[in-house]
Amino acid sequence: MDVAQLLIGGIANGCIYGLVALGFVLIYKASEAVNFAQGDMLMLGAFLGLTFINSDRADLPFVVGITAAAICLGAFAYALDRFVLRAIFGQPHFAMVILTIALGFILRFAAGSIWGYDPVSLETPFAGEILRFGGLTLAVADLIIIVATCALTMVLWLFFAKTRLGVAMQASSQNQMAAYYMGIPVKRVNSIVWALSGVVSAIAGVLFAAKGAIEPAVGLLFGIKAFAAAVIGGFGSLPGALMGGLLIGVVEQFAARYAPSGTAQIAPYALMLLVLILRPGGLFAQIAQKKV
Fold first, then answer.
1. Average confidence (pLDDT) over 214-222
2. Which domain holds residue 75?
């Protein structure tokens, strides 16, 4: 029973890592750039959710609040690409790396100025609720995170497989020049990808906030672990990003329970190192196919 409980808790944490890693991969597939502010976008989404949902703020119903947070962060990410990142289009990838690192500092400073630097909690209708199955004691928040991640993953799969915009995004990620000659507005598609990444980050942020307190610096550590998840899964693979997140979440839980103190903090990076040694492209590597 202890193992099953650890496994479910690890999967719930891994779902959040996986959603942030999805944001990394979406942007990488669209622009071949890594957004090192992805974790800070999760933090921003969590604070937006808190603003819309908590009773001392807008006091909206939970589902309405998370939707409003997703729309706001999606619009912010779209504007960020349209008016800031597009200005360095065609520059070396190093410029994008530096810009997104700087963006992370700005977002943490802005969040601290607006919401303060002390940890705050999100009010949810299922806070503290637990379910018991036999000998298992499960937090309702963990179950909701798992169900929401499965639903979001299905929606994303349907979007990319069944819609014209999703197919255009896939074409653009495979070969931007060919997509341009086929009449696909590549730059606008890239902006929409950033918006989609913002929506996913906002949902991940609110789900994360439902499990514990949030503060401006939380996005930095979370973003680094999610980056490790994307590397483990294989940068460029959406299923790989989700699987990498789940692996990190589960490994962390078991390391915290059975390994010496502090091991859980380094376990994700040890796993990433092991995967890079055994399979440099990641578990679901697609980079080689993309370059053909």
1. 91
2. 1-220
